[in-house]
Amino acid sequence: MFVSCDAAILHADLDSFYASVEQRDDPTLRGRPVLVGGGVVLAASYEAKAYGVRTAMGGAQARRLCPHAVLVPPRMSAYSRASDAVFEVFRDTTPLVEAVSVDEAFLDVAGLRRVSGTPVQIAERLRADVRDRVGLPITVGIARTKFLAKVASQEAKPDGLLLVPPDGELAFLHPLPVRRLWGVGAKTADKLNAHGIHTVADVAELGESMLASLVGGAMGRQLFALSHNVDRRRVTTGVRRRSVGAQRALGRAGNRMTPAEVDAVVVNLIDRITGRMRAAGRTGRTVVLRLRFDDFTRATRSHTLPWATSSTQPILGAARRLVAAAAPLIAQRGLTLVGFAVSGIDRSGAQQLMLPLDPEAPMVDAAVDQVRHRFGKSALTRGVLIGRDLGIEVPTLPD
């Protein structure tokens, strides 16, 4: 296994990130149940979670469970600033930081004992620094592997610290429910439970072939390895983006949106994605559509272009075709979130020129980018977007 003999991998995870930022910035919200979002709960404070409220739950259901909760609109710019400040603390702690999302990361502190102390001392100082410098609570799990460090942080929440010593790994892991294993969602857990498999220890007692017969070959191998704490992944920095994406939560309002209103959301998302691609000097070939529905199920569709591009029009055309093909599904299930990503990223930014040549589109894109860079993103807006309620933008991360 490519792991240190010491427990020196930290999994740092901010507690109820969006809700914690709101409670930090508004003292009247501290100690009270807070819901961030409208039609869909984007985040819930621990006071609200105590009533059974969960992220991605419908707003009406959340208010039934916790009628005295305070509902606040999301402030994505505030969350982005808070995330940047927290990651600055991470990088001040160690150069080996691997971002998992806007509110969590793995840190490798194996080589810092002489200059910074033990992993527990480093984690205690990190938690204090995040609290003092950013004003947010954070939980840290410490273990030899990334998998077990993340499980430790889950067990230590909220606002805690937990070390899993190398000689106590399986004693800690095996009594936990199967949902603690990466990749085990509700459906897989139900399937395992139906066969009398409830804990990680139950999984560890099965052979790899038996697990494969229950959940498939790849998943069976993964569960067998994780149930014995076999995780060969290192903490890696500077992970390359494999896609550029953006998404918007529509809430229950998505059910009432006309095709023209949905198209406005599509135009806005693709406009943002292609602008980011051009700013980063990236092109891509595959357009991916992601949908979430009223019943919290999801669907994904994709289309691969014949050439890599960052131009708005060809990517928008592919996006519109994907939405049109998914229209019956949207009408049947009700739409609560729509997102897009462009993958097949070419880091060189090379674009294939096609005949007949159309020099106007790249020139228009470049001109729009220059105006927005100089005067702000709202300086130029597509006519279809004027006066539209486009829902709530939800942060996305590199794949």
Automatic annotation (TrEMBL):
One of its GO terms (molecular function) is damaged DNA binding. The active site is at E104. Keywords: Cytoplasm, DNA damage, DNA repair, DNA replication, DNA-binding, DNA-directed DNA polymerase, Magnesium, Metal-binding, Mutator protein, Nucleotidyltransferase, Transferase. Binds 2 magnesium ions per subunit. It is found in: Cytoplasm. Mg(2+) binds at D13, D103. PROSITE patterns: UMUC. It catalyses: DNA(n) + a 2'-deoxyribonucleoside 5'-triphosphate = DNA(n+1) + diphosphate. InterPro entries: DNA/RNA_pol_sf, DNA_pol_Y-fam_lit_finger_sf, DNA_pol_Y-fam_little_finger, DNA_polymerase-Y, DNApol_IV, PolY_HhH_motif, Rev_trsase/Diguanyl_cyclase, UmuC. One of its GO terms (biological process) is error-prone translesion synthesis. GO terms for cellular component: cytosol. Its main location: cytoplasm. Poorly processive, error-prone DNA polymerase involved in untargeted mutagenesis. Copies undamaged DNA at stalled replication forks, which arise in vivo from mismatched or misaligned primer ends. These misaligned primers can be extended by PolIV. Exhibits no 3'-5' exonuclease (proofreading) activity. May be involved in translesional synthesis, in conjunction with the beta clamp from PolIII. Belongs to the DNA polymerase type-Y family. This is DNA polymerase IV.
